[in-house]
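thought: fold this chain, then report.
action: predict
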Amino acid sequence: AAEDALKESEKKYRLIFENSPLGIFHFDQNGMITHCNEKFLEIIAASRKDIIGFNMATSIRDEKMKDAVRTVLSGKPGHYENVYHSVISGKVTPIKAEYSPNISEEGELLGGIGIFEDITRRKEAEDAWKLDEYRLQTLLELNQMTDRSMQEIIDFAREEAVLLTRSKLGYIAFVNDVETILTMHSWSENAMQECKIRDKPKVYTLKSTGLWGEALRQRKPIITNDYNAPNPLKRGYPKDHVKLTRHMNIPVFDGKRIVVVAGVGNKEEEYDESDVRQLTLLMEGMWRIIQRKRSEEALQKYADELSKVNMELEKANKELKSLDVMKDEFLSNISHELKTPLVSIKGYGELISEETLGALNEQQKKAVGVVLRNSERLRRLIESLLFISGIESKTLQYQFEKVQMAEIIDDVANDMDLPIKEKCLKTKRYVPEDLPLINGDKTKLSDMLTNLIDNAIKFTPSGGMIKLKAYEEEKHLHIEVEDTGIGIPQELIPNLFQRFYQIDASIKRKYGGTGVGLYICKSIVVAHNGDIWIESE
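observation:
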């Protein structure tokens, strides 16, 4: 019975030994491994023939592990917890090891038992927790930097981004309002030490950027874990540039607009979504601090100025209000006064042109044609002034109804046919007849298109082309007026919808105009819940 009980006990022990989630091994009084389970072999990535006979007391390189084994061989329990480098396979594994001495009933030391636990996941969880804790600490410190300069805030965020993602380098670039130009604010200190380029460029157009511009182009984080792999988007390195092995960058949004592109590089492990999250949260925090600081500085500056010139400002405000009222009244009155005789001039001009009052010779017809063209030009100018006056006085009314945009485009294009032909311009229309009806003010939409086509005619040299396009886009109609004119400098485009804005005096002298056409166009488009923008080279 005792023998049977012993066999049953050994069977149970073997079952536990072989199926344990922990690595278990036996070694003799000299430290020589005599037996182990499969889990132990898996943890240290070794075969049974390599491990049986391996001396734990002499062959291990890790001194702390050796100390734990020697402690057991002296008859006391031993403990080890660290990253273990297997001398057999070279595998590096975070482990927790417990050693117990194996002592016979007579008190003789027979060797020891070791139990290995792979704590990789636990270490990863601890590292992630520590990283999150460090990130929270960093964000807290960032939020307390409102008394620091803008340069200090940005430099702090950049260097912390490198640390949080365990990278070797980092950079921050700011994006212009129309998302076409990136201005490199700074590289991290490590990158600046490695980079040997003199006179590094700071301004990059999006068109000229390679792979690192994808975060702006695609409007999302971009991870490149093998930067040396061929990629059609790569443009190559300038001489003496820092070499990249891995790269990740993210866009920072302010509403729908990208304001910052931040990047890091050369992490030893691959970048992942955790790195994206760390970098995004940090840079969003930085941008909020920058915006808050800008607002506080602007408010403080305003408050300081207000306290100094309060009386003068109050007086100036009263005068300005009085002048604004006078200006609006003057615009409204003079526009109406001009419109009344203009109707008569245009009416009689048309009667003369149609030869209702008698036949005309060629020279007279040309003269009447000049009168009619300039009357129409003056009419549009007066209508523009009345429109602006209506906006300022908040009396402008819209008559919304179901309208067909294709008809409006055709009518306006036909009305503008004469000045187009006089300038020898070509036109093309891509306007389907079956466009969906929209809720709009037909007159205002006609005015808007007239202004746009008039601009195209004005700034396109003889022999050029004007194209009109319209197509359905999701729940909107997309309308394009395209020309082959002189183009507009990119940095001036955001100003063009301002009232009375002219690019420069020479343009105004050469082409004429008051600078209100695009302001009126935008007002009409916004009133129709739409967007208007300019794309030009």
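thought: worth noting. The chain has a mean pLDDT of 83.
final: tokens above.
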